[in-house]
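User: Hey, quick favor. My workstation is busy. Could you predict this chain's structure for me?
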Amino acid sequence: KEHPDILNKFTDIIGGKYTVVRGSVYFSLKQDGKRLLMNESSSAVRSLLDVGFYLRHCAQKGDLFIIDEPELNLHPENQCRLARLFACLVNAGLKVFITTHSDYIVKEINTLLMLKQKKKHLTHIPTSIIHYHIITSLLKSICVD
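Assistant: No problem, here it is.
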């Protein structure tokens, strides 16, 4: 709730939002507002339900957010958008730990790190660029000798 832009990015990735009506979870499409039961929704929408709930109701600065293969069932463009969302979470003070087989996610995070290092040469800086010092300190803390 403190970062509505992050919630909006997530809504854009999944193409709608989750709602609960009389104890049932629905997915409301962004384009026309049509409400679908979860079993009528896409596999990507179903697989990201927990992420959506966490972001909307639980996420707090300092949390360690661990997600396994977030790219499952996502179009490559949305995999890149999800990587940018993770960068925004890091910049908002969350620690994000991802396991992935997606070249798209890895390349996007790498690109964001490189852009952050070169930001003094850019005229427009996207908010999703990862703060390099945060990532390097986290990487150092998880490296195994």
